[in-house]
Fold this protein.
Amino acid sequence: MFKIQLKNSKSFICSEDQTIFEAAKIAGLILEHSCLSARCKSCLAKVVEGKTIEIGEDLVLSSSDKQEGYILTCNTKPLSHVILNIEDIDNVDLSHPKTIPSKIDVLEFVSKDVVKLVLRTPPNSYIDFLSGQYVNIIMGSIKRSYSLAAARRNDHKLEFFIKNYKGGVMSNYLFESAKINDVLRLEGALGTFFYRHKKSKNIVFLATGTGIAPVKSILDHFDGNPELVSNKNIWVLWGARYEEELFWAPKYQNIKLHFIPVLSRTNPNWKGAKGYVQNVLQEHEIDLSDAQVYACGCNDMINSAFKLLAEKGLPEHQFYSDAFVSSN
Ligand SMILES: Cc1cc2nc3c(=O)[nH]c(=O)nc-3n(C[C@H](O)[C@H](O)[C@H](O)COP(=O)(O)OP(=O)(O)OC[C@H]3O[C@@H](n4cnc5c(N)ncnc54)[C@H](O)[C@@H]3O)c2cc1C
């Protein structure tokens, strides 16, 4: 049995057969996480002292990350007492994930490659979630993760934006054969991508493609609770390749935000920002030392943004991410 100590001096016991993430959970401490399958970096931590070993191959840490002492808590066991540079998530009421049935209520094609899916849950059951979290949608033996794309509502409906992938089992079903009232099961809510109420003056959202879904959910929540973000500057940078892929635009009554769509491919008539969201962010003079950044969508953007923004003064622990990695 080894002692794992966090930056805020909290500690827990982890056996040599447990991952650090699992042991923390058993001890009642929630660590940042998302996929829990070593495919994203949401559960990244730095080993300050001690020895650890990976339980399986991870697909995201570079050899220099590893040399610098970074680990994924979902994929790492201790070999000694360990001190980590992370804190647990405190003061957040996360409900236990549950599995419930749902029926397709709306299928609306919002662009060539993205469908807005609304699922209706039975009157006596509902998935309780924090804006920004995701659920697993289950069809027979197929299970895929999708972020909720709206704040909690009272009509038992849950909204998603889902991209069509070539040869993708779930997305092709939704695009080609799904019908209103088809039954799908839901498991959740999952993940720790949600807004943290802190002192930071600037709140920056970086999204690519359907990565705008959890961002929209959080913004919807702000719009219903504007006191959460009074006196804060909110930036939303949303990346797509072409203009016709921008399937959403913010229309909020109670909050103000700087919305910057960014296109990465040549669009002859486009007068807006060009390139990648993380680079465009740097063109704006945002004090990153007083910012929280929430990044969601493709892994490359998230990894590049994390490196770039940390170099420009963003404290590492103020960067939150949810990578839409393949969930099969
Ligand atoms: C936490 C989380 C939240 C997510 N939220 C959303 C969301 O809100 N909206 C959304 O559209 N997607 C989201 N995804 C991705 C989603 O879970 C599926 O991976 C995606 O819908 C493809 O599933 P599929 O069954 O259609 O394709 P599969 O049958 O799983 O795969 C078909 C092919 O597509 C490739 N592929 C599958 N998924 C991806 C991917 N994400 N990136 C690149 N290539 C891929 C596979 O490698 C394979 O070649 C999320 C993923 C995670 C981990």
Q: What stands out?
A: The mean pLDDT is 95. The helical segments are 20-26, 63-67, 169-177, 212-224, 277-283, 299-311.
